[in-house]
Amino acid sequence: MVTVRAPATSANLGSGFDVFGAALDRPADIVRVEKADRTTIDVTGYGAEFIPEDPDSNTVGAVAEALDAPAHIRIDKGIRPSSGLGSSGASAAAAALALNELYDRGLSRRELVPIAGKGEATVSGEVHLDNVAPALLGGFTVATGRDVTVVDADIPLVACLPEIAVSTRDARDVVPAGATMEQLIYTVGRAATLTTGMCRNDPRLVGKGMHDRLVTPARADLIAGYDQVREAALSAGATGVTVSGAGPGIIAACYPENRQEIASAMVEAFKDAGVDSRAYQTKIGRGATLYSE
Ligand SMILES: Nc1ncnc2c1ncn2[C@@H]1O[C@H](COP(=O)(O)OP(=O)(O)O)[C@@H](O)[C@H]1O
Ligand SMILES: N[C@@H](CCOP(=O)(O)O)C(=O)O
């Protein structure tokens, strides 16, 4: 049996749609695999009742098929599905690493990124590697085509998850079809600022670089209370706040001393908007961890 813990991830980080991603220290999914004649899946944990166990519909099924690695796969969800915290991608990344080990396929973590991406695409509709790359490789990742650059950044974060479900597939439908030159110049400036901040471990630059005028406004409209929660986090000391992945999670960058206050402020602001939520005080963390038995 092989067991893997794969972390939640926050994709886009505002200015890096479909490119930027960050592994979060917590929460995480745990995936256990055992060899079998055909693939079967059991799901337990947070939101398990909303996750299909049919291999054709669960992200881990396509991974097992791509690796020609049939297995009994047990998924213990620590990351709620339809969260914007890379829940479906975390299971796919964990399964890729676990099955590669179980069947001794000898692929590197980088080689597993597109395989896990195939699994994730079964639910989101299109391949985007900005969840599975950080889930496998850790840190802050820049995924362009098959090239992934990793920065082992150390940035404190708060991820606040409201009791609203937004599927990545639906949230991709509201992405604008094009951009003006002015919007492109703004986005490049912010993305470069964010990347510099990650390389320097500078929460101020990371927060500044999270601002986005292109994709985020349309997605924010799908999250009740977004503007109030963003304002509350900024007032409590966040250096930047944006939609996490496709939402409804909201991610804030900060200095360590403000993290607790920001988490409370975000939960309070959601409550004022009539929405229950849960805040994770976290930071950029490592990629999936492998445990063999
Ligand atoms: N292993 C899995 N973990 C989480 N969600 C899964 C899994 N397999 C299939 N799904 C489906 O994927 C959808 C959630 O994925 P997605 O919309 O991309 O959100 P998230 O940001 O949580 O990854 C849900 O419809 C869920 O049922
Ligand atoms: N780049 C994707 C990321 C989706 O992340 P998720 O955590 O919501 O699955 C997108 O923005 O659609």
UniProtKB/TrEMBL annotation:
EC number of the protein: 2.7.1.39
Major localisation: cytoplasm
Stored SUPFAM superfamilies: GHMP Kinase, C-terminal domain, Ribosomal protein S5 domain 2-like
GO cellular component: cytoplasm
Location of the GHMP kinase C-terminal domain: 197-271
GO MF terms held by the record: ATP binding; homoserine kinase activity
Gene3D superfamilies: 3.30.230.10, GHMP kinase, C-terminal domain (3.30.70.890)
InterPro entries per record: GHMP_kinase_C_dom, GHMP_kinase_C_sf, GHMP_kinase_N_dom, Homoserine_kinase, Ribosomal_Su5_D2-typ_SF, Ribsml_uS5_D2-typ_fold_subgr
Keyword Nucleotide-binding: yes
Residues reported to bind ATP: 80-90
GO biological process, one term: threonine biosynthetic process
UniProt pathway: Amino-acid biosynthesis; L-threonine biosynthesis; L-threonine from L-aspartate: step 4/5
Residues annotated as domain GHMP kinase N-terminal: 60-139
Catalytic activity annotation: L-homoserine + ATP = O-phospho-L-homoserine + ADP + H(+)
Keywords of this entry: Amino-acid biosynthesis, ATP-binding, Cytoplasm, Kinase, Nucleotide-binding, Threonine biosynthesis, Transferase
Highest rank taxon of the organism: Archaea
Location relative to the cell: Cytoplasm
Function: Catalyzes the ATP-dependent phosphorylation of L-homoserine to L-homoserine phosphate.
Family that this chain belongs to: Belongs to the GHMP kinase family. Homoserine kinase subfamily.
Protein name listed in UniProt: Homoserine kinase
Species this chain originates from: Haloplanus aerogenes
